[in-house]
UniProtKB/TrEMBL annotation, chain A:
UniProt DNA-binding residue ranges: 126-226
PANTHER family: KDP OPERON TRANSCRIPTIONAL REGULATORY PROTEIN KDPE, REGULATOR OF RPOS
Domain of life: Bacteria
Sequence ranges assigned to domain OmpR/PhoB-type in this UniProt record: 126-226
SMART domains from the UniProt entry: REC, Trans_reg_C
Record-given protein name: Stage 0 sporulation protein A homolog
Species this chain originates from: Sulfobacillus acidophilus
TrEMBL record, chain B:
Primary residence: membrane
Lineage of the organism: Bacteria, Bacillati, Bacillota, Clostridia, Eubacteriales
Transmembrane segments: 50-70, 82-108, 128-149
Superkingdom of the source species: Bacteria
Gene Ontology cellular-component terms listed: plasma membrane
Entry protein name: histidine kinase
Length: 227, 549
């Protein structure tokens, strides 16, 4: 039997769409039409992944995310709309794993579901990661592209490491700053981030003007493409 | 600016001409305790300045005559006390000058007629000189006391009348609803109190001083009123025309701390009406009071505007939120379902395919309804709606609406009771949209498979349609608000919607000269009642007559 996915959305048509497409991919699904029903279902049914609509009325989704994260590490993908960057960042900083913007293609959603499930089940001790032409050896701190070793500064290496550990998933600017520079970073220092990401791109991207490995999610953060 | 100056034989200060007034502008609160030298509100040229002295002389002459006649009865010492009387009377009636004059004259006359040697100014007994001095001193002190008493009394009366006047003006200002009324009333009131024409000039929308309230402006031959007005307005200083101390015309800027709001124009040319000191102060008080009133009114208008724009901003946000959500949901479903059908055709079973196709169509229908509602709203709001009013059968309209909603109402027990004479005058298409909106609301906000009743009734001149559901009902406080655009009750926020449907219904029904209202369908649920003017029922004979002809 495939992974269990819980769909929390108040719109019946979207629930139907997700149910039909996910089931054809071999997943098992359950549905909830409100935040409370979703939490109850997550506790009883223990899903492997939750898809949560951020368009739930009464700001329900905020509570749902917070309450779920109090006792569960299950991957959560949020459904959001295009022009709500603040909402996306908020959800990601409050424990959502990834987001999909409405209207979305089914393939895009399935790719995000796959990436989140794989990350949740990957062996954390894997020392060598492979992303496209890049090979990152975490034990020896060596980054290779097409068998050439790249010279990275410590900060560039840290950036790449954090992005690689979250490959396929968006990492918010705040998360990056905290993990690379430490806990006490200024919220306004995001332009440092832009500069370092630019330098990193010059070293790892085949064509830095058309990034294919490190993608910018406008207003939210960065995403390393899936291996 | 060039001011023409009239040729005149009078001294420079008396020559009528425009001059910038030296008066410091005081706020009206400061003006009240100011000293005032009295005089009528308007100074007419005084003809008899020496009249009080004549009266004093006459009184002393009469007294002397009486004393001369009754001289055997009185000692000189009694007579001398009697001479205090004219001094007192002059002090009370005419003030300091005449009373001192009366005291001196009394001493002289007494000395001449009653002090030996008689008929001579010379005094034989030198003790009389001390008496004279005491008499003069008593006269002077009495004069000072009496005249200051009189001044105080006068001042109190003036202060009281000024306060009463300002109070009544400010009350008028507070009561007036709009600026023109307020300004006209203030000008009229000021004119009647000062007994002079008064007008208030405010800038119009272009900033030109074009709005005149009260009397027409009096135009002296030596001044260009418009230019003076503009000068006063821009330089924030008062200007007067006529004699320096008692001008004929006064132009006062309506000034607050920050800004000039207009000009108060007082007086009339060529009527020999001049301002007294008191009326000039009163004019200043009115000017600053009016300025405050205009400022307050303008601030009120600005606040209203700000409130309006905040309200329209809120509406716009609500519109954007609701429409983007309502459009995006079906769009997401349509995109997702169609891409899934295209890309995973081989994996999808026939049941799954059918389900996706069904959601595809439902979403398209939902989007169609939203767009239809939006366009209707736009057409109604922009006044592009033209109603084709024909007699139409209510049961037919309900029938068409039920047919249109047959998918939505699939599992609902629906009862329809509409009498045959329920015929209304109206536009079939629009009325059908009203019924569709009301029925789909009833379905949306009540439990699935709960019944919906549609009842029509004919009342003399009108036809009523009730649509009853067993849903959550509408709170009494929201019965009216649900017809507002984009208003959605808080307890149905879990059900998607735009808040447009009932607003459209209301607009359509109003265009038909009907009413729409909601009531509680006790114990739970809602009744929406639409009332429309009925079409005159055609009797059977008429039908036959029409067919024959």
């Amino acid at each position: 039997m495939g992974h269990k996915i819980l769909i929390i959305d108040d719109e019946e048509s979207i629930r139907t769409l997700l149910r039909v497409t996910l089931r054809t991919q071999g997943y098992e699904t359950a549905e909830a039409d409100s935040g409370n029903a979703g939490i109850a279902c997550a506790a009883q049914w223990v899903p492997d992944l939750i898809i949560l609509d951020l368009g739930l009325p009464d700001a329900d989704h905020f509570n749902v995310l917070d309450q779920l994260r109090q006792w569960s590490n299950v991957p959560i993908i949020v459904l959001t709309v295009h022009d709500r960057e603040q909402e996306k960042v908020w959800a990601l900083d409050h424990g959502a794993d990834d987001y999909v913007t409405k209207p979305f293609g089914v393939n895009e959603l399935q790719a995000r579901v796959r990436a989140s499930l794989r990350r949740a089940h990957q062996d954390p001790s894997t020392p060598i990661l492979q992303v496209g032409a890049l090979t990152i050896d975490l034990t020896r701190r060596i980054v290779e592209r097409d068998s050439h070793t790249l010279k990275l500064t410590p900060i560039e290496y840290e950036l790449l490491r954090v992005l690689t550990l979250n490959a396929g998933r968006v990492v918010t600017q705040r998360q990056l700053l905290q993990q690379v520079w430490g806990e006490h970073v200024d919220e306004d220092s995001s332009h440092y981030l832009r500069i370092y990401v630019g330098r990193l791109r010059k070293k790892v991207e085949p064509d830095p003007s058309k990034p294919q490995l490190i993608l910018t999610e406008p207003g939210v953060g960065y995403r390393l493409t899936e291996p | 600016m060039k001011w023409r100056v009239a040729q005149s034989h009078r001294s420079k200060a008396l020559r009528p001409q425009w001059r910038v007034s030296k008066y410091r502008l005081l706020s009206w609160a400061q003006i009240l305790p100011e000293r005032s030298n009295g005089g009528a509100s308007v100074v007419r040229k005084t003809v008899w300045p020496l009249f009080p002295y004549a009266v004093a002389t006459a009184m002393i002459a009469a007294l002397t005559f009486l004393c001369w006649i009754f001289q055997p009865l009185f000692q000189p010492i009694n007579t001398s006390l009697l001479y205090i009387l004219p001094v007192l009377v002059s002090a009370l009636w005419y003030g300091f000058g005449p009373s001192v004059y009366a005291a001196c004259l009394s001493v002289l006359v007494f000395d001449y007629y009653f002090v030996p040697p008689i008929y001579s100014i010379t005094v034989s007994d030198l003790r009389y000189l001390i008496s004279f001095c005491v008499f003069l001193a008593v006269g002077a002190v009495t004069a000072i006391l009496a005249s200051s008493l009189k001044r105080q009394a006068q001042r109190a009366t003036q202060r009281e009348s000024m306060a009463a006047f300002l109070l009544s003006v400010s009350r008028q200002m507070a009561e007036a609803d709009d600026l023109p009324t307020m300004m006209t009333q203030v000008a009229r009131h000021t004119a009647s109190t000062l007994a002079m024409p008064a007008s208030i000039v405010l800038p119009d929308a272009t900033g030109r001083l074009g709005l005149v309230y009260g009397h027409q402006l009096s135009n002296p031959p030596t001044g260009i009123v418009d230019d003076i007005l503009t000068w006063v307005y821009h330089h924030q200083r008062p200007a007067t025309f006529g004699e320096k101390s008692h001008p004929e015309l006064m132009y006062l800027p309506l000034l607050t701390e920050h800004q000039t709001y207009g000009v108060l124009c007082l007086g009339v040319y060529g009527q020999n009406l001049r301002f007294s000191d008191e009326s000039m102060r009163l004019a200043q008080a009115v000017a600053s009071l009016t300025a405050v009133a205009v400022a307050r009114w303008q601030l009120q208008e600005q606040a209203k505007l700000a409130h309006l724009s905040a309200e329209s901003e809120r509406l716009r946000t609500a519109l954007l939120d609701s429409i983007s959500h309502e459009l995006r949901t079906p769009l997401t479903t349509i995109l997702g379902a169609s891409s899934s059908l295209l890309e995973s055709q081989d994996v999808l079973g026939s049941a799954a395919q059918a389900e996706l196709l069904q959601t595809l169509r439902d979403s398209a229908v939902r989007m169609n309804r939203l767009i239809h509602n939006l366009l209707s709203m736009v057409r109604i709001e922009s006044g592009m709606v033209s109603l084709h009013t024909d007699p139409c059968d209510l049961s037919e309209i309900v029938g068409m609406a039920l047919h249109q909603l047959k998918d939505t109402l699939k599992n609902r027990p629906i009862t329809v009771h509409i009498p045959d004479d329920a015929i209304v005058k109206g536009d079939e298409g629009w009325l059908q949209q009203v019924v569709v909106n009301l029925l789909s609301n009833a379905a949306k906000y009540s439990p699935p498979a709960s019944p919906i009743d549609v009842v029509g009734e004919r009342r003399d001149e009108c036809v009523r349609l009730h649509i009853k559901d067993l849903g959550e009902g509408i709170a009494a406080s929201e019965q009216n608000r649900v017809f507002d655009k984009f208003y959605r009750s808080a307890n149905v926020s879990h059900i998607p919607g735009t808040g447009l449907g009932l607003a459209i219904c209301k607009s359509i029904i109003q265009a038909h000269h009907g009413t729409i209202s909601t009531h509680s369908n006790a114990p739970h649920g809602t009744i929406v009642t639409v009332e429309l003017p009925a079409h005159e029922t055609v009797t059977a004979e008429e039908v036959i007559w029409v067919t024959k002809s």
